[in-house]
């Protein structure tokens, strides 16, 4: 089962805090995944399509138990996609127009409502219920182990802007993207996604995302530490190679036995422990020396090699002059 289906299953088991919550949620369910048809003056029918069994059950339950509306349910199974499609039909029946007005789908005079049903959204619990219905009908949420992404697809721009405003009352910042004739309301922030799930009633799913985020945070911290250690190790290795080359040069130009005792000890230890950092190499000294002390011995060695090179260059120049005379 996908993470989206898990969230919708959890939401389908939520009960509104007041009777209007049921109407607000039913309104969003029908508005987002339903289509309204006119068949003459004052005659209507509604077709609702969904791929989620929990959503289909919720719509049928609300229609029968709370609205007194008769429905027809058709289930189609796709062998290719290994999934089911649910078609709920609300055929024309007495009083249907009044009930659609009550749900905020129609306005008095049988005009379509394009925005939010404000009369159903006076309380925060009802606004949360409307958001719950909208997500159940047209929502998608990515598996948090891969990405933090939640979206709700609707067909009308006014409805989309209204849902964004509802989310704004919860301190949630949503964005809108037009996609193939529809409007996708989407969230990319972990904080916004968990806040919306909690408000809608999917606290268990919100906690699951929080747990994933903690694991990701620990993994990222470990990776940063490991990368830092690798980088430090690489820098130490490169430095050790340069130091070994310097020691070889000192042996050729000066001779290790002629070096000061402390510098000679540094050369001996570096050759014996090429993999150690200066700090670790200092612990091999007798007595142990600090990283700073080892660094100054290295600088002393560099200075001695440089002086030896300059001395050789001066001797070569003198020999050349003598040959010319």
What would your notes on this structure say?
- The chain is an alpha+beta fold and 325 residues long.
- Helices cover 57% and strands 15% of the residues.
- It has 11 helices and 10 strands.
- It has helices at residues 3-12, 19-33, 53-66, 96-102, 124-138, 157-168, 190-200, 203-253, 261-272, 278-282, 291-324; strands spanning 34-38, 44-50, 72-78, 83-90, 106-107, 111-112, 139-141, 150-154, 175-179, 182-187.
- The strands form 3 sheets. A 4-stranded antiparallel sheet has the order 1-2-4-3.
- Helix 2 runs parallel beside helix 5 (124-138), helix 7 (190-200) runs antiparallel to helix 8 (203-253) and helix 8 packs parallel to helix 11.
- It starts with a helix and ends with a helix.
- The mean pLDDT is 88.
Number of strands: 10
Strand content is 15-25%
The H/E string reads HHEEHEEHEEHEEHEEHHHHH
Mean pLDDT: 88
Stretches with pLDDT under 50, minimum 5 residues = none
Biggest sheet: strand arrangement: 1-2-4-3
In DSSP terms (H or I, runs of 4 or more residues), the helix count works out at 11
Distance between termini?
A: 96 Å
Helix content percent band: 55-70%
Q: Outline the biggest β-sheet.
A: 4 strands, antiparallel
Radius of gyration: 37 Å
User: What structural class do you assign from the helix and strand content?
Assistant: alpha+beta
Tell me, what's the shape?
rod-shaped
Annotation keywords:
325 residues, alpha+beta, four-stranded antiparallel beta sheet
Ordered list of secondary-structure elements with their pairings:
Blueprint (H helix, E strand, L loop, with lengths): L2 H10 L6 H15 E5 L5 E7 L2 H14 L5 E7 L4 E8 L5 H7 L3 E2 L3 E2 L11 H15 E3 L8 E5 L2 H12 L6 E5 L2 E6 L2 H11 L2 H51 L7 H12 L5 H5 L8 H34 L1
Helix pairs in contact: 1-3, 2-3, 2-5, 7-8, 8-11
């Amino acid at each position: 089962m996908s993470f989206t289906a898990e969230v919708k299953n959890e939401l389908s088991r939520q009960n509104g805090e007041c009777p209007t919550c049921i109407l607000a949620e039913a309104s969003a369910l029908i508005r987002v995944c339903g289509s309204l048809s006119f068949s003459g003056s004052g005659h209507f029918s509604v077709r609702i399509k969904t791929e989620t069994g929990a959503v289909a059950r919720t719509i049928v339950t609300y229609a029968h138990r709370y609205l007194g509306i008769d429905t027809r349910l058709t289930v189609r199974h796709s062998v290719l996609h290994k999934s089911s499609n649910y078609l709920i039909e609300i055929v024309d029946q007495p009083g249907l127009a009044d009930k659609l007005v009550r749900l905020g789908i129609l306005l008095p005079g049988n005009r379509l409502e394009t925005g939010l049903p404000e009369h159903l959204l006076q309380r925060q619990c009802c606004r949360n219920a409307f958001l719950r219905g909208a997500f159940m009908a047209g929502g998608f949420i990515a598996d948090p182990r891969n990405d933090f992404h939640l979206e709700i697809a609707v067909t009308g721009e006014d409805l989309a802007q209204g849902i964004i405003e509802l989310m704004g009352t919860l301190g949630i910042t949503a964005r809108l993207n037009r996609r193939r004739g529809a409007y996708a309301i989407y969230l990319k922030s972990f904080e916004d996604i968990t806040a919306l799930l909690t408000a809608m009633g999917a606290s268990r799913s919100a906690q699951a995302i929080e747990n994933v985020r903690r694991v990701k945070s620990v993994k990222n911290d470990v990776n940063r530490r490991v990368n830092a250690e690798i980088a430090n190790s690489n820098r130490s290795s490169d430095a050790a190679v340069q130091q070994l080359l310097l020691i070889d040069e000192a042996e050729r130009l000066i001779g290790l036995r002629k070096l000061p005792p402390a510098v000679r000890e540094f050369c001996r230890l570096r050759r014996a422990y090429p993999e150690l950092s200066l700090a670790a190499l200092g612990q091999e000294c007798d007595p142990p020396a600090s990283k700073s002390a080892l660094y100054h011995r290295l600088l002393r060695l560099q200075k001695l090699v440089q002086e030896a090179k300059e001395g050789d260059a001066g001797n070569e120049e003198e020999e050349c002059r003598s040959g010319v005379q």
